[in-house]
Amino acid sequence: MKKVLITGISGGQGRLLARRLTGEWDVTGVDRIPWIGAPEEILIETLDLRKRRLRNVIRLSRPDAVVHLAFVRHFRSDPRVRHSVNVEGTQHLLENCAEFGVKRVIILSSSYVYGAQPDNPRYMHEDHPLNVSRTFPEIRDLTEVEGLASTFLWRYPEIATSILRPVNTLGYYVHSAIGRYFKLDLLPTIAGFDPMMQFIHEDDLCEAIALALEHDLRGVFNVTGSGALPLKQAIRAIGKRRLSLPEPLADLLIGQAFRWNIYEFPPSALEFLKYPCTISGRRFQEATGFEPKLTLEDIFESVSR
Amino acid sequence: MNNPFKLGDMLRTGLTSIECGDSIAREIDEKVVAIPADLNSYGYDPWGFSPKVFRDYLLPAAIMYRHYFRCITRGIEHIPEGRCMLIGNHAGQVAFDGLMVMTAMVLEARPPRLARAMGEYWLGSLPWLGVLLDRIGSSVGTPQTCADMLEHGECILAFPEGIRGMNKTYADAYQLQEFGLGFMRLALQTNTPIVPFSVVGSEEQAPSIANLEGIGRLIGAPAFPITLTWPWLGPLGMIPLPTRYHIDFGEPMYFDGDPTDEDDVLIEKVESVKANIQSMIRDGLARRESIFF
User: B44 vs A192: CB contact, 8 Å cut-off?
Assistant: First the structure.
């Protein structure tokens, strides 16, 4: 059986993927936190991606493929730590993949790298510039990770490297930014703005990653679910209450709430509640035959109480 | 709360209480349902078009179409099936001409069509208006969005003069300003017929004396026209004069060629569209007996 190493295996998406791949792949996982209750056949090492122990794990297990899911995606910790884990962690991982003969690498980026802008084309393609740091510098580490990954892509043509950019991911297990936003009791929205948003269910994303592993996928791919809906309509579909704030007030209140650690998203994240960041998943569908199975209703059902 | 849905509901309730409003509302309901659209189970198309919101906002537009501008529309039978691009002259400080063409496409075209206007980029950053633009099936006019919509078989409405046309002073009335080339590139790229149209009556709805672009820039708008009523009467000054609109659609024009050709090659094709529209305007003006009646 071929071996796959999953980084960030203890996270929601990591666990789902590990379970999905077990049986077809010999799964090894690394994470900073342990996975309590992990299936026996999955070997898990608790470590920091930036540390030398990662090298030993890769050297000893010699994986055929690596799926990189270990990113800090929240804003609560020190921004320098987030940046260092994401950027240096990725760099260290990629160096070792090259050295120990890994044949496939999949990096789970995000559609957020395109940034939310009023004049974005609807349904952007993979070659659209990554503009997110223009208005949302807190997640520029994601674009830097993509930079590292693209360099890796052309430096090691013998390794099938693919970067996946999924849309807003929702489900029972994942702790995505949008998932945490939808878990709030009262959701802030901006008066007069209601952008189209795309959603994908965690199970469909799992399937997409598995398909990317099966096919010798190379390059950058947007991954989309089964459609788009205006943000406020999505909030209604989930059955949540929202508070519509005028823009200047939202900036002020959320800035303070973020500073006092009451609210977990920085004010610049508000751009995504104002402007569209929709992407076209056609390229990935054509390359892998991927078809999302869960409808928008299923997706919202899975996160509403 | 402050969302365009509620305002649309209020408009509808208010306007259907008057007699002509009620009959037009019923006509619109029938026709909007007949517009082919790719809706999801929540009633939105991929670009955010909502027939429900469109229907509500079309009602005041249709009342204006019938009873304010009293539009006379000719040549609507020239609209081909499937993808097409409506290209015409732009005037009148506020884009009532676009609104009336969209309304004509629903009220007069057989079958009713949704004309998707390609808006200025800055419209997307305006609260409420930006959302409304999406809900009525239009969009910020990026070339990619436009190409995607055409590939999908949609009807696109564009004014290649942009604000150069809309905010020109009355001294230049009915003289077409410089056309952008983008629409021709897209037409060639997606093999789309171009339907030229002219609007006569829009120039006199708000004759402008000057355009103080400097002040516009200060407040973040692309233009700042001075008319007989704006800015003197405040928001009331934006109300257009009740001129009669004559909307003429011409025969579709088919082009082929390389969309990546040099500007000079494209300009030739664009000029032929422009000349066509200019002569339609001339005919319209010659036929018109009065500005208001």
Answer: no
Range of the domain at A221: 3-176+200-227+279-293
What separation, in Å, do the N-terminal and C-terminal C-alpha atoms of chain B show?
Answer: 41
Contacts of A125 in chain B (CB under 8 A): 144
Query: Which residues of chain A are under the pLDDT cut of 70?
Result: 305
pLDDT digits (tens, 9 = 90+) for B200-217: 999 999 999 899 988 888
Q: Is a pLDDT exceeding 60 seen at residue B157?
A: yes
Asked whether residue A210 is assigned to any structural domain, the reply reads: yes
Domain ranges of chain B: 69-287
Substitution target from A187, A193, A235, A251 for chain B, most B beta carbons within 10 A: A193
- Distance, CA of A124 to CA of A111 (rounded, Å): 10
| Residue A246 within any structural domain of the chain | no
Q: Is the pLDDT of residue B138 over 60?
A: yes
- pLDDT band at residue B4 under the 50/70/90 scheme: low
Q: Is A271 at the interface with chain B, CB within 8 A?
A: no
Residues of chain B in contact with residue A296, where contact means CB-CB under 8 angstroms, are 40-42
What ipTM does the predicted assembly reach? 0.91
Q: Domain B69-287 belongs to what topology?
A: Glycerol-3-phosphate (1)-acyltransferase (3.40.1130)
Domain-embedded: residue A13? yes
**CATH code: domain of residue A208:** 3.40.50.720
* Residue pairs spanning A and B at CB distance below 8 A: 79
Task: Give the residue on B whose Cα is nearest the Cα of A123.
Answer: B145
Name the E strands within A132-240: 160-166, 168-170, 186-190, 196-201, 219-223, 228-230
The helix-helix angle for B51-63 and B4-16 (nearest 10°) equals 40
